[in-house]
Amino acid sequence: MDAAMGLMRRMPPRHSETTLSALLSLLPHHSSDLLSQVDLPLQVLCDVDNGKEFILCEYNRDADSYRSPWSNKYHPPLEDAPYPSSELRKLEIEANDIFAIYRDQYYEGGISSVYMWEDENEGFVACFLIKKDGSKSGQGRRGYLEEGAWDAIHVIEVGPEEEGTTRYCLTSTVMLSLTTDDESSGTFSLSGSIRRQMNMNLSVADGHLCNMGKMIEEMEGKLRNSLDQVYFGKTREMVCTLRPPSEVTQMRLPDS
Fold this sequence. Notes:
alpha+beta, 5-stranded antiparallel β-sheet, globular, 6 helices, 3-stranded antiparallel β-sheet
């Protein structure tokens, strides 16, 4: 199992579905662990009741149906499906509206979904999802990328309230993939994923959504910086070492 998870961490996100399928065939006795621990690139489905798109994941799936956060219905319809309580559903609706504003401000488009459900510890779990297509044919504003995708998954476990405070456990995963194909930059492909965790004890005076929003905003800032340093920074360093710019090459050449 450790070797399988290590392999999944090293595979590009666009190949993760094929790799996971192969691992499930090789390790059928670990199928439940693999499906619960491996994050795949997010997929999108349209809610036919109101025409809005929502994100598919393991947290809104039951059997082969997925629950829409907009209509609270499963697509395709499913009998005896689990639903959040009425109180948690109200919080879920409010979270989707607020997170849509957050998505527009930080991502300039894309698709977001929020799902909530009760856990066994008298608390609840919330999943915040964002998918942004940055390709030329998608929502890429600058048109540099032939293909580009940003998938963010934030799962927050909210514990029971004790003396006005609650413990929040955030696990965030970001999957990034991009490909360029033009005369100026040539053909270039970069993809990878990063996962981080954060635990905080916060007062519930401002509400759960405020606390969870601050944690997600802080975590996404850290993840963006890590991706910039690890992926883009290291790639830039390697390219400049192997193929230094012309002005650097001229500085290194001895005078004739």
